């Protein structure tokens, strides 16, 4: 099974837009996307996400971010043995932390979580069938990528099935009920983003 999706979100907490081309398989997700934002400074970000079968574990995330007189790049790789590898490069002068991070802090993570990106909530939802509304709450460790600086750090997160198409997301600072489509992809993430429809039939 393979399904091609084109998704667009708009920010709810600040001016932001995101476009993603997504390929969904029964046990794997591939995505290429672009995000535009203005907080904490204007930036353009592009990413490529590959996950591996049989259960949507992150295989690689590459991210490029740029703004006025600055740029940076992150390569986040999880190898077949489950080891994370992080490399980052930065150019120009801007008041942001350096890209990259210490993979030992999130060594047990199976997934990345790209900041402000509704797409990367999909992997734990798809792996455990959480969009169906059944099952127990599940706790995860994520390799969380801050945007637009592209630092990587550990993030403890919980996903709690609420009902069909709704999962509650909880971390140390935030809680929200995510509304999902039939593929388990975010339609609305309160205080972060919502899907935009073209209105086409």
Q: Total domains, how many? A: 1
Strand segment count:
14
Overall pLDDT confidence: 95
Low-confidence stretches: none
User: What order do the helices and strands follow?
Assistant: EEEEEEEEHEEEEEE
Classify the helix fraction into a percent range: under 10%
Distance between the termini: 24 Å
Q: What topology, given as strand order, has the largest sheet?
A: 7-6-5-4-3-2-1-14-13-12-11-10-9-8
In what range is the share of β-strand residues?
Answer: over 45%
How many H/I helical runs? 1
Q: Profile the largest sheet.
A: 14 strands, mixed
Structural class: mainly beta
Tell me the overall shape.
Answer: globular
How big is the Rg?
16 Å
Structure explained in plain terms:
It contains one helix and 14 strands. A 14-stranded mixed beta sheet has the order 7-6-5-4-3-2-1-14-13-12-11-10-9-8, with helices on one face. It is mainly beta and 201 residues long. The chain has one helix spanning 122-128, and strands at 2-11, 16-25, 29-37, 43-52, 57-67, 70-78, 84-92, 111-114, 138-145, 152-163, 166-170, 175-180, 186-189, 193-195. Helices cover 3% and strands 55% of the residues. It has one domain. Helix 1 (122-128) links the parallel strand 8 (111-114) and strand 9 (138-145).
